[in-house]
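Section handout, structural biology tutorial.
Before the tutorial, make sure you can parse a SMILES string by hand: atoms, branches in parentheses, ring closures as digits. In the record below the ligand is flavin-adenine dinucleotide, and the chain has 373 residues. In the tutorial you will relate the predicted structure tokens back to the input. Do not try to memorize them.
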Amino acid sequence: MSDYLVIGAGISGAAAAAELAEIGTVTLVEMEERPGYHSSGRSAALYTPNYGPSVVRTIIAASAEFYRAPMAGFADHPLLTPRQAMTFVPAGSEAKIDEYMAMATPATPLQEISPDQACKLAPLLKREAVARASLDPHVMDMDAGAIHQGFLRLLKHRGGKTFTDHRITAIERRDGQWRATTTSGATFEAPVVINAGGAWADEVGQMAGLKPIGLVPMRRTAIVIAGDPTLAPASMPAVDDGATEAYVKLDAGRLMASLGDATPSPPCDAQPEDLDMAMIVDWLERNTHLTVKRIEHSWAGLRSFVEDHCPVVGFDSDAEGFFWLAGQGGYGIMLAAALGRLTRGLVERDAVPADLLARGLNIEELTPSRCRA
Ligand SMILES: Cc1cc2nc3c(=O)[nH]c(=O)nc-3n(C[C@H](O)[C@H](O)[C@H](O)COP(=O)(O)OP(=O)(O)OC[C@H]3O[C@@H](n4cnc5c(N)ncnc54)[C@H](O)[C@@H]3O)c2cc1C
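Predicted structure of the complex:
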């Protein structure tokens, strides 16, 4: 038995478990052989502060403080490194640039750049593909793997226990305790359960007899192709097509590209589909000087959203001790540090941490009950 049972060892569960391990005993349970097998190991690893609804941006900014200066021993190298992102639009979509510029937060403004400047920053772009462009200097590369491992190490250091290869299939409340049973017959008990099941969060809730929050996992596909230092120098910003949401970015000397697709999917081990990969290649060859001879690697991952695209964080009003930490969508790596602290604050004192309050975080925008209204 422990004080807190965290279900799901993706980045969200790992960060929350590490925080909770400072105030009680924690058990973190993961169905796969290793943490990070699903969404947390399949991200684009970009820190993009001008992305998502306002409450998401607030939480991203709070997380960044931790990622910029984590505690000693969390990681042995910087977690955020400057990258920048450039958004271009073709003729006919020029107004999109005004929309992007208007959506930037005052603390992280965008600047318009000329099409020639855009092609200088990203020589892979065909000049005729660019009618207008903007530059976001605040975008960073994130070391998602190091952040995830840092939280798992912190959890261990604080006495928490992680069990992998344990799929929870049943959850029941008895005598003030939640009791979770796994496929192997093992049981874990705690008065408080944190549901950090990623794409499976609604399934986990239903195991406990709770109404769904309406989570929809969305599949996104990515490919990796050979780099080309002439067309994509090491200093190249991430390049977004503002008209279609497709993007291409450097990835350890190679290039990662995605259509920015969002195809509804059941929770599963998402796999790339041939048609999606062919469409990424087509986008690359129409908009850039790249010729794709071989896809070196490809993957698909799930980004799980509720209707308003804001995360779901808080106790379920219908079940004592059942806490939701779900719906991190396309921002879960950026959100993890601050959502871990928020989880601890709500669990420990029913309070939002002071720095998040000072940033204007309105907890009502995250409550599970809003998803069932
Ligand atoms: C292509 C792509 C690009 C992305 N790019 C970015 C980006 O640039 N920046 C960013 O911040 N975010 C990005 N994201 C989003 C980010 O990856 C996710 O929001 C984040 O990983 C979600 O983390 P999680 O821990 O909630 O979910 P997961 O990592 O999916 O973890 C949930 C875990 O719960 C486990 N689990 C589920 N059910 C059970 C059960 N019954 N018993 C035990 N364990 C269970 C699963 O095995 C899984 O490991 C991207 C996502 C994708 C797919």
